[in-house]
Every structure is written in structure tokens, then in C-alpha cells.
């Protein structure tokens, strides 16, 4: 196994994938805990579909995909948050509307322009081979920014996650921190799409948090456990993908599912 890892590290594209993947996995797992507790679990799925539509438009305009997808997903995250708070369309209805509408725009744009080429498929299903030097640089930079902002505002995010009404009463600007969570989630979703694919990126946000919550009962312990699980599942998934030539995104999700089932079994055993 050690020899296999050494062999993997001899390929520059796999080194890039490991660095970016670990950073994105950390970001997704940290944000996933807050999103699951706030019942915004499907926001990642909605934003990934918006990201796919933005990427399709970017290819049609012949511009760098990430420079279009990131601002579009950030705007969509803010709109989704506002719709959940102020609109008659609540929660899953707003997300479903966003998912189907964005996917339709993406498919229509592709059919009228480039067609379903390799680049589009890479963004739909994920491909570590397709990560350019620019993708790697911007992914590493933005992932570090996301992690720094999360750590800096950890206490406020904790307060808004558990009791938003009490947080408002104590003077916390909950709207601002909700927007911050939405912003960080949008950036993380776009960065992870290249590796995981638009159809699977939401699992990177949800599964580690759900698994950690099976056995951990405190917010900080859940966050730490989710971060460790996310990185471990990513490394296991990419190793399996390398050994058996399976899709990277799907391999990582399967590892997450197995880990979730194991933690659920441990929870049942502890209850007995």
C-alpha cells in the first residue's frame, strides 16, 4: 500500500488532486455540520446545479469556467437564503425550483452550442485529470480563505447554527453570518465540482457531518470528527479509484456511505 501511494505521488496531476481534494474536503465537512443542523442540507445540491449551468454558459462564451461559476453560485446562494427566509417558497421547494431550473438552462445552453463534450462531462461527473494549473491555484487559494474565515468566525457561526433567535437577541448580526455560510458554501461547491462532479458534490458536504453526528454529541467534536472522516474518505476513495480505474467522485461517495453505515452501527451498539 505504501508503495502504491509513492507511485501515486510520482504523478503531478494526482498530487494536485490530493492537495485540492483534502482542502475542499475540509471546507465541505466544516460547513456541512452547520448546513445539516440548520436544515439546509440540500443547498449544496441546488448550488451544484447552478454551477453546472454557469459552466455551460462559460464554455459557450469561451471564458474561464471558474471565473463565471463562482460569482453566479454566490449570488444564487444569497437568493436561496432570502427565498427561505422571506418567500412563500420554503426550504426544499426553493431548492427544487433552483435545481430543475438551473439544470434546464445548462442542458439547453449545451445543446445549442458545444454539445455534450468531454469538458462538460468532466464537470457533471468529476475528473481529476481535467484540473488545469489555473484550477489548482485558484482552488488552493480560495480553500485556504474559506478555512481561515470559518476559524475566525467560528463562535458566531456556532451561535447562529444552534439558536438564531437567541443570537439575534444578544446582538449577533445573524443575517450577515448566514450570508457568510452561504458564501463559503457556494465557493466550496464550485471548487469541488471539478473533482467530484456537479451530481455528487453535495455528498461531500452531507455525509461526513451525518456520520460524525452518529457518535459525537458536541458541536466541536462533531466538526473535528467530520473533518477527519472527510479527509480519510477522500484519500480512500482516490486510492480505490487509482487501483481499480473507477470514477473518482463515485469512489469517494461510496467510501462516505460505508463510513456512515459503520458509524450508524456503532451508534446502535452504544444505545444497547
Automatic annotation (TrEMBL):
Read off the Pfam families from this record: ABC-3
Similarity comment: Belongs to the ABC-3 integral membrane protein family.
Q: What is its main location?
A: membrane
> What GO cellular-component annotations does this UniProt entry give?
ATP-binding cassette (ABC) transporter complex
Which named protein is this?
Metal ABC transporter permease
Q: Give TM regions.
A: 12-37, 57-81, 93-116, 136-155, 176-193, 199-216, 223-242, 248-266
Task: Kindly list the biological process annotations in GO that this record carries.
Answer: response to zinc ion; transmembrane transport
Kindly give the membrane topology term recorded for this protein.
Multi-pass membrane protein
Q: Where in the cell is it found?
A: Cell membrane; Membrane
Going by the entry's taxonomy, the superkingdom of the source organism is recorded as Bacteria
UniProtKB keywords: Membrane, Transmembrane, Transmembrane helix, Transport
Q: Does the keyword tRNA processing apply?
A: no
Amino acid at each position: 500500500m505504501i508503495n502504491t501511494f509513492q507511485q501515486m505521488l510520482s504523478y503531478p496531476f494526482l498530487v494536485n488532486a490530493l492537495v485540492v481534494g483534502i482542502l475542499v474536503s475540509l471546507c465541505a465537512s466544516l460547513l456541512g455540520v452547520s448546513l445539516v443542523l440548520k436544515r439546509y442540507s440540500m443547498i449544496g445540491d441546488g448550488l451544484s446545479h447552478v454551477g453546472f449551468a454557469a459552466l455551460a454558459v462559460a464554455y459557450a462564451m469561451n471564458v474561464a469556467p471558474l471565473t463565471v461559476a463562482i460569482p453566479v453560485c454566490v449570488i444564487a446562494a444569497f437568493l436561496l437564503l432570502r427565498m427561505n427566509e422571506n418567500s412563500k417558497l420554503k426550504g426544499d421547494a426553493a431548492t427544487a425550483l433552483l435545481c430543475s431550473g438551473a439544470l434546464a438552462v445548462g442542458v439547453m445552453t449545451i445543446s445549442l452550442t458545444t454539445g455534450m463534450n468531454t469538458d462538460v462531462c468532466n464537470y457533471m461527473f468529476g475528473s481529476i485529470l481535467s484540473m488545469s494549473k489555473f484550477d489548482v491555484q485558484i482552488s488552493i487559494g480560495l480553500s485556504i480563505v474559506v478555512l481561515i474565515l470559518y476559524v475566525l468566525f467560528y463562535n458566531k457561526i456556532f451561535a447562529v447554527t444552534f439558536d438564531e433567535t437567541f443570537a439575534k437577541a444578544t446582538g449577533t448580526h445573524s443575517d450577515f453570518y448566514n450570508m457568510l455560510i452561504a458564501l463559503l458554501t457556494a465557493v466550496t461547491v464550485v471548487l469541488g465540482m471539478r473533482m467530484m462532479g456537479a451530481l455528487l458534490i453535495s455528498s461531500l458536504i452531507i455525509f461526513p457531518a451525518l456520520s460524525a453526528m452518529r457518535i459525537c454529541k458536541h458541536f466541536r467534536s462533531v466538526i473535528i470528527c467530520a473533518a477527519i472522516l472527510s479527509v480519510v474518505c477522500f484519500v480512500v476513495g482516490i486510492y480505490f479509484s487509482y487501483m481499480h480505474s473507477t470514477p473518482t467522485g463515485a469512489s469517494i461517495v461510496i467510501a462516505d456511505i460505508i463510513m456512515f453505515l459503520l458509524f450508524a452501527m456503532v451508534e446502535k451498539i452504544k444505545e444497547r
